[in-house]
Design a protein that fits this description.
Blueprint (H helix, E strand, L loop, with lengths): L14 H32 L7 H18 L3 H7 L1 H21 L2 H8 L2 H11 L2 H6 L2 H17 L2 H6 L2 H23 L10 H24 L9 H29 L9 H8 L2 H7 L7
Length: 291
């Protein structure tokens, strides 16, 4: 920790730059929400009987709202001036928003709107090795939690405070890696080769322990390279500790809510097919032999 020195982003920014910093994220959030609602409308048009869940829609739109709250004033302004604001931004965009975005099942929704040929192509992509590796819980854990060590224990964080472009990349990383981890642990969208519940609980437990360790080191000022007043760093550490715990408890709740017990060995083949949700059957159909 660097005494009482701290950074603010964008010294000397003009009024037009500030307008763009509000307009660009707002446009992205509105386009994401609008695109999701358009897919919902198309899904209803293709199959009026099988309506899309309002809870899924509410979840995705809530996630968009959380992303907007993280990227727009007053949170973004607070994050530019205070490490506690940065940590609040990190929690919103990297833990809370990804959970509800993932629970919105956007891939499932997209597949319901595609033609059979395009759905097969997307299915093939989802089954490709790079996607399987990226969505594995270990990869997602390293990307979402392991990189925090690099960010806060090296000069990386301080460098991003002097470079708004690099800071935006960090925020994009928080969002994407958070979505990968939430999907790997409890996402309702299909995940070919997803391990069982015990393995995912282990990954979640490692994430809980890692967040707790990093936040405690940050509070004590050990192995942390953050140039900000001590009070701000300790406040940020407390936000990470308690806010992270709440987010991970919510993720654990989502995992429990989506868990289904494994069938007995003798009934596994039939029960597995009967218990698969409609999307799962759609995804597996190209890979299942008739009869």
């Amino acid at each position: 920790m660097g005494g009482d020195a701290h950074h603010t982003h964008g010294h000397g920014r003009g009024g037009s730059s500030e307008v763009w910093e509000v307009l660009l994220p707002l446009t992205a959030v509105l386009l994401s929400a609008g695109g999701y609602l358009l897919l919902v409308h198309r899904a209803h048009g293709r199959n009026p009987v099988r309506r899309w869940s309002r809870w899924r829609t509410a979840g995705f739109l809530t996630g968009c709202a959380l992303v907007g709250a993280a990227l727009l004033p007053p949170v973004s302004t607070f994050a530019h001036q205070d490490f506690r604001g940065h940590m609040a931004q990190h929690l919103l965009i990297g833990m809370y928003a990804p959970l509800v975005l993932v629970l919105g099942a956007p891939v499932t929704l997209l597949l319901r709107t595609l033609s059979a040929a395009r759905a097969r192509r997307l299915t093939g992509f989802l089954h490709s090795r790079p996607v399987r590796v990226a969505t594995h819980q270990v990869s997602a854990l390293v990307l979402s939690t392991g990189t925090l060590v690099v960010l806060y224990s090296t000069p990386v964080y301080n460098a991003t405070m002097d470079a708004p472009g690099a800071h935006r990349l960090v925020l994009a990383h928080f969002l994407l890696s958070g979505c990968l981890f939430a999907h790997a642990i409890a996402g309702p969208d299909p995940a070919p080769g997803r391990p069982g519940v015990p393995a995912r609980l282990v990954a979640l437990g490692v994430a809980v322990a890692a967040h707790a360790t990093i936040s405690q080191l940050m509070y004590g000022g050990f192995l942390i390279d953050v140039r900000a007043p001590v009070g701000q760093v300790q406040g940020g550490a407390e936000l990470m500790y308690y806010g992270g715990d709440i987010a991970e408890l919510l993720l654990a709740g989502a995992l429990v809510a989506t868990w289904r017990p494994s069938p007995r060995r003798g009934q596994r083949t039939v029960a597995r097919h009967e218990s698969l949700p409609a999307l799962g059957r759609l995804l597996l159909k190209p890979f299942m032999r008739p009869g």
